[in-house]
Amino acid sequence: MKSIKHIKEKVTAYDNLYQAYLHARRNKRFRDEVLAFSANLEDNLHDLQKSLIDMTYRPGPYRKKVIHDPVDRLIMWQAFIHRVVQWAVYQIINPAFVRGYIEDSYA
Q: What DSSP assignment string belongs to 11-45?
């Protein structure tokens, strides 16, 4: 597998963070947390970009909820800003991994 060069610059690029924001808000657009982030979008993305570049970003804790469907299920999720970071990283590293996948694998 080839290495990904300049990954930090690619992940922290403003365009990548904006695309990550769009992916993270998909089907969650009108939730309070997303609306609050979107209200001051440009400043929030610049602050996030600065914290990623300065390496001061720290992922927050997961939120947890137990759903009692036929069986108990533990649902865990992160705050919206952390999902934006996850998408930003995913968008850069996934293409490198996809090249290495076996096409006829059904796993």
A: HT-HHHHHHHHHHHHTT-TTSHHHHHHHHTHHHHH
**Does the pTM exceed 0.85?**
no
Angle, CA 89 vertex, CA 61 and CA 8 arms, to 5°: 110
Burial (CB count within 10 angstroms: exposed 0-12, middle 13-18, buried 19+), residue 58: exposed
Query: Which helix (H) or strand (E) covers residue 8, if one does?
Result: helix 7-11
Give the pLDDT band (50/70/90) at residue 1. low
b (16+ CB within 10 A) / e for 19-28: ebbeebbeee
Contacts of 7 by beta carbon, 8 Å cutoff, 6+ apart: 92, 93
Nearest to 89 by CA among 10, 2, 34: 10
Half-sphere exposure of 95 (CA within 13 A, CB side): 7
Backbone torsions φ then ψ of 52, nearest 5 degrees? -70, -40
